[in-house]
Write a structure and sequence with these properties.
Helices cover about 20% and strands about 25% of the residues. The chain is of the alpha/beta class and about 475 residues long. An eight-stranded mixed beta sheet has the order 2-18-12-15-11-3-6-7. The protein is globular and about 70 Å long. This is UTP--glucose-1-phosphate uridylyltransferase. It catalyses: alpha-D-glucose 1-phosphate + UTP + H(+) = UDP-alpha-D-glucose + diphosphate.
Length: about 475
């Protein structure tokens, strides 16, 4: 017997969720119950070989386009995977400044540079809205007072893994809901009335990016290219490196030569080697997207009020803190997957300066280090790194949570500008008096944290039996 969507519809309507979000979720639900695994087999796709490079754009920037452009940051993530219980964007990333501090300063700087009030929006979730609005009201009241600053992400029911009926969690009903992924952007634009309002006010272009990607600011050269090509949708991609091999990639669907996005959750186990082959699948989606709002409206109207996106299925438990609780599936969509919905959609290659996200403590450690410096409120790779960021591999069992990383680096972060690769296994204490150079491996098999020695460290070091203790209680100086 095929599971019915009606229990989900009833639950969502009772919660007051917009019809656009209900329709979008019904589309992914139907894909689930039809037996669609959401997988994209290697045999059905081809690599993408060449894309236009933004660094080679030569057209004169057209500042008149700014009056028709809105900048939107996705800000729905809590960062629970890193041990956070508030908006991830409030995490300090450089000195005392958080993602939202730097984003706000980028917006203010952008308006100053271009001499006009470029429209700025946030898409918050039910988990991040209060923290985010309080932050802006306290630190950036002028931005907080602007009309239409916030647009809310929707929520969808978690589904029983066996019956596909809405899951229940009497001890905490909030656990019965989950975010629908950033593909919800399109349903949220419709359901909130914001899409129609933006079109009515003369906005034609939207630049969207994640709040944890500080490299993604409005680029007038790319906007000019986007407008000149009359493209409905442009995805910014970067060339994959070893650090990116486990993330999604751009590819071409063989049956219709359509650009599509394959996320890691869409890759069958037997195709994992090809998925991670960065010489074959060279480009990944930065989640920096440019969307023609009028073309988006056409697609949504054509499909009855939503945009049909490929399903991503995640297996979880209804209570994320209780592995013995009801097994559920969470259905998500990715906003980049919309590239397959727009006729004439394309992609471009951008430099790594436009991609500096924080997904794990490895990323945060690197961003906080001297391997990245700030330029116009954006993190850019330190020239001393010679164009290649160090590859960081912190012990995933010891440093999954931000608190553990901060304990390890409370005396400062070692210099990484001359480091090629850093691997740490076990608990350690680091300081700003250490410089990692070349390939470095640190191992500690004892249960107690051991101090990494001061000075230049290279090669392999086993600290298990080390007795080194810092002599100077003030470890604030930075080597190099």
């Amino acid at each position: 017997m095929v599971a019915s969507f009606e229990p989900c519809r009833t639950k969502m309507e009772k919660e007051g969720i917009a019809s656009s979000a209900v329709s979008a979720f019904e589309s992914t639900f139907k894909a689930l119950v039809s037996g669609d695994s959401g997988m994209i087999a290697e045999s059905t796709i081809s690599p993408v070989y060449d894309l236009a490079k933004s660094e080679e754009f030569t057209a004169k920037p057209d500042t008149s386009l700014l009056a028709k452009t809105v900048v939107l940051k996705l800000n729905g993530g809590l960062g629970t995977g890193m041990g956070l219980d508030k908006a991830k964007s409030l995490l300090q990333v450089k000195g005392e400044e958080s993602f939202l501090d730097l984003t706000a300063k980028q917006v203010i700087q952008m308006r100053k540079d271009y001499g006009m009030k470029v429209k700025f929006m946030l898409m918050n979730s039910f988990s991040t809205s209060a923290d985010t609005l309080q932050f802006f009201q306290t630190k950036y009241p002028d931005l907080a007072a602007e009309d239409g600053l916030e647009m809310m992400q929707n929520k969808v029911p978690k589904l029983d893994a066996t019956t596909f009926e809405p899951a229940t969690c009497p001890s905490n009903p909030d656990n019965e809901w989950c975010p629908p992924g950033h593909g919800d952007l399109y349903a949220a634009l419709v359901g909130s009335g914001r899409l129609d309002a933006l079109l009515k006010d003369g906005f034609q272009y939207m630049f969207v990016s994640n709040s944890d990607n500080l490299g993604a600011s409005l680029d007038l050269d790319i906007l000019t290219y986007f407008a000149s090509k009359d493209a409905p949708f442009v995805m910014e991609c970067c060339e994959r490196t070893e650090n990116d091999k486990k993330g999604g990639h751009l590819c071409m669907r063989k049956k219709d030569n359509q650009l599509i996005l394959r996320e890691s959750a869409m890759c069958p186990d037997e195709d994992e080697a090809s998925f991670q082959d960065i010489s074959k699948h060279r480009f990944f989606n930065t989640n920096n997207l440019w969307v023609r709002l009028d073309k988006l409206k056409e697609i949504i109207d054509k499909n009855g009020g939503f945009i049909p996106l490929p399903m991503i299925k995640n297996k979880k438990t209804v209570d994320p803190k209780d592995d013995s609780s009801q097994k559920v599936v969470q259905l998500e969509t990715a906003m980049g997957a919309a590239i397959e919905c727009f006729d004439g959609a394309t992609a471009i290659v951008v430099p790594r300066t436009r991609f500096a996200p924080v997904k794990k403590c490895n990323d945060l450690f690197l961003l906080r280090s001297d391997a990245y410096i700030m330029k116009n409120h954006k993190p850019v790779l330190n020239p001393l790194c010679n164009g290649v960021a160090p590859v960081i591999s912190l012990d995933s069992k010891k440093y999954k949570m931000v608190g553990a990383l901060e304990d390890a680096t409370e005396d400062g972060i070692p210099s990484l500008v001359k480091c090629k690769r850093l691997t740490i296994k076990g608990l350690v204490k680091m300081s700003g008096k250490t410089a990692f150079v070349g390939d470095v491996s640190i191992v500690n098999n004892s249960p107690d944290a051991k101090y990494v020695p001061f000075g230049i460290i290279s090669g392999e070091h086993d600290l298990t039996n080390s007795t080194f203790q810092p002599v100077d209680p003030c470890l604030k100086c930075v080597i190099l």
